[in-house]
Design a protein that fits this description.
By secondary structure, the chain is an all-alpha fold. The protein is about 75% helix and about 0% strand. The chain has one domain. The relative contact order is 0.08.
Length: about 45
């Protein structure tokens, strides 16, 4: 995948670390979106 995308500087990074990093970013993004939606729902209810 790294070779296909042309990101040569990531060759030294272990693939397991990249998988964990991507999973962590997705989890963080999901948490931010969930928190944002929760706040907007509470604000909309009088």
């Amino acid at each position: 995948m790294i070779e296909a995308m042309g990101i040569g500087f990531l060759d030294a990074v272990p693939r397991m670390f990249l998988s964990i990093a991507v999973a962590a970013w997705c989890t963080a993004l999901l948490g931010l979106v969930s928190g944002f939606l929760g706040r907007t729902r509470q604000a909309a209810v009088p």
